[in-house]
Amino acid sequence: MDILKLPRPLVNNILTQAQHSPENEICGLIGGHNHIGQHCYPINNAATDQRHRYQINPKEQIDAMRKMRENNEQLIAIYHSHPHTPARPSHTDLNEAEYPEAAYLIVSLNTVGVLEITAFRIKDKQAYAITLELT
Questions:
Q1: I need a surface site. Which of 6, 14, 61, 124 has the fewest CB within 10 A?
Q2: CATH superfamily of 3-134
């Protein structure tokens, strides 16, 4: 079974980012070890249409990857939000996924009263749900 373990404070950080940007998608990276998240690296969305897609800012991605190396971490997850759609990979998400070894987290604000967060692996333009365990 494929499991991604994330500390509750890290997940709360991501959920707060999404809540502070209710109309635009947020994005970032999670570093850690052995499918266990340790640090969240928020990155500005560089997409032209941030309401419907995300594009990780390339310079900030390089900086985040450098910080991960300095912290002896590896990239374990990429996260973004869907302000107006469910927490499932979109067609664009599937086509643009470039890190099959990383989990993809999606936060949906398209729910009433509760934020939804799901985890997937995306390989060959196919999404496979994985278990997200909060620690």
A1: 124
A2: Cytidine Deaminase, domain 2 (3.40.140.10)
